[in-house]
């Protein structure tokens, strides 16, 4: 029986093998294993890709988010106890970064059409302590609209993008800096290059993007023991640097980001065309096609059929996953979190099912997977 793995990272990276080996050799021969030209070149190339003038390569996406928030605290623009509005449907890292900085995550429910934050519910959550919104471009879909931008401007809030899943995505709408790309839309953004991401490293890696020179300098110092320059520690910082070896791997893959994203879109279009079941709601194909890079292709399976469909697909050799089975506010570590009711997020958690979409799943595989879904005997 043919197998359709959910994700095979060796297949994802196989097309880059020769370039990666050459890049790894370059780093090994350079003798420079922390910082230096490789990381600087990566930052410059990431700046070109996103349009954000300042990029700081860091250890991972969670650290990128943590460093942004901690830098705002050092700069006096946030303080302990401030509230940050964040979508209830996100990977837990968005919440963890907020709590780790001594801030309070305030979850907002999602719009069932996009599975991203419902901006019409934000205003009802704003208190005098609300100082920032962390929008998450979940599954690679830009989460920004006029309403959100107006709230940010009218309430003088910070807009932080969790762009961990959205490299290369372009908003239909200009952000605060007059730019369109994920990472350049708000005041600061975090990227993750975790190996499963559309552009993934061979280990942990991340980046902070911003238009704010002062924030950039603070993040850079915080990521390097708080040192503004060598042995001059302005802050009680951390060691959250990007390794040159990962920067080199990413420099191989960055030029192919748009191609990787376009290939995913092609597979998404096959699913969109071929999956036909009354109990399955497919993800929206946005009018502005570049505003989603299909990090995940997430179905909603109605009539309590999600687990049955997942089990059936497993029997048929189709790997699937659930992003995410338990929303952060229902995780044990957030049992004391204050929050309002979040019915859409809680409902979707029992319905969502992610299909294979990365390199390794061909368009004919996608058509075959659609057929298997359509033929599930219930
Ligand atoms: C939405 C989101 N935010 C943050 C992160 C954290 O990134 P990392 O795994 O690189 O720490 C991830 C990914 O893992 C993510 O999907």
Strand order of the biggest β-sheet: 1-7-6-5-4-2-3
Largest sheet: 7 strands, mixed
State the helical fraction: 25-40%
CATH architecture of the largest domain: 3-Layer(aba) Sandwich
Specify the structural class.
alpha/beta
Principal-axis shape equals: globular
Radius of gyration: 21 Å
Number of helices: 12
Which cofactor or ligand species appear?
Answer: pyridoxal-5'-phosphate
What does the model show?
This protein has about 375 residues and is of the alpha/beta class. The chain folds into two domains: about 10-110 and about 115-255, Type I PLP-dependent aspartate aminotransferase-like (Major domain) (Aspartate Aminotransferase, domain 2, 3-Layer(aba) Sandwich); about 255-375, Aspartate Aminotransferase, domain 1 (Alpha-Beta Complex), CATH 3.90.1150. It has helices spanning about 10-15, 15-30, 35-50, 60-75, 90-100, 145-155, 215-220, 245-255, 255-275, 305-315, 345-350, 365-375, and strands at about 55-60, 85, 105-110, 130-135, 160, 190, 205-210, 225-230, 230-235, 280, 295-300, 350-355. The strands form three sheets. Strands 1-7-6-5-4-2-3 form a seven-stranded mixed beta sheet, with helices on both faces. The chain has a three-stranded antiparallel beta sheet with strand order 10-11-12, covered by helices on one side. Strands 8-9 form a two-stranded antiparallel ribbon. Helix 4 (about 60-75) packs parallel to helix 5 and helix 4 packs across helix 7 (about 215-220). The two termini are about 20 Å apart. The site of pyridoxal-5'-phosphate has 15 residues, from helix 4 and helix 5.
């Amino acid at each position: 029986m043919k197998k359709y793995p959910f994700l095979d990272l060796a297949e994802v990276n196989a097309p880059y093998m020769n370039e990666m080996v050459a890049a790894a050799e370059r780093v090994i021969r350079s003798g420079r294993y922390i910082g230096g030209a490789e990381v600087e070149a990566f930052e410059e190339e990431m700046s070109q890709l996103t349009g954000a003038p300042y990029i700081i390569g860091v250890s991972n996406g969670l650290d990128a988010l943590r460093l942004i928030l901690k830098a705002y605290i050092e700069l006096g623009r946030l303080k302990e106890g401030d509230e940050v509005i964040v979508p209830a449907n996100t990977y837990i890292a968005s919440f963890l970064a907020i709590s780790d900085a001594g801030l309070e995550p305030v979850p907002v429910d999602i719009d069932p059409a996009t599975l991203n934050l419902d901006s019409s519910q934000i205003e009802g959550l704003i208190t005098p302590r609300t100082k920032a919104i962390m929008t998450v471009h979940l599954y690679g879909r830009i989460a920004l609209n006029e309403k959100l931008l107006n709230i940010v401007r009218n309430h003088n809030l910070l807009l932080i993008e969790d762009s961990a899943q959205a490299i290369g995505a372009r908003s239909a709408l200009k952000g605060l800096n007059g730019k369109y790309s994920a990472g350049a839309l708000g005041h600061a953004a975090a990227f993750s290059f975790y190996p499963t991401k559309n552009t993934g490293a061979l280990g942990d890696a991340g980046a902070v993007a911003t238009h704010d020179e002062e924030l950039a300098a603070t993040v850079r110092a915080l990521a390097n023991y708080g040192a503004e320059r060598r042995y001059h520690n302005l802050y009680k910082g951390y060691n959250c640097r990007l390794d040159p070896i990962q920067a080199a791997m990413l420099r191989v893959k960055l030029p192919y980001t748009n191609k990787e994203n376009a290939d995913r879109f092609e597979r998404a279009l096959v699913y969109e065309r071929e999956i036909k079941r009354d109990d399955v709601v497919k993800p929206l194909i946005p009018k502005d096609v570049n505003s989603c890079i299909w990090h995940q292709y997430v179905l909603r399976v109605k009539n309590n059929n999600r687990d049955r469909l997942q089990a059936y697909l497993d029997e048929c050799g189709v790997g699937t996953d659930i992003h995410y089975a338990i929303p952060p506010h229902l995780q044990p570590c957030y049992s004391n979190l204050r929050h309002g009711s979040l019915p859409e997020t809680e409902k979707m958690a029992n319905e969502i099912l992610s299909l294979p979409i990365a390199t390794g799943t061909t368009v004919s595989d996608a058509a075959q997977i659609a057929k298997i879904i359509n033929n599930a005997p219930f």
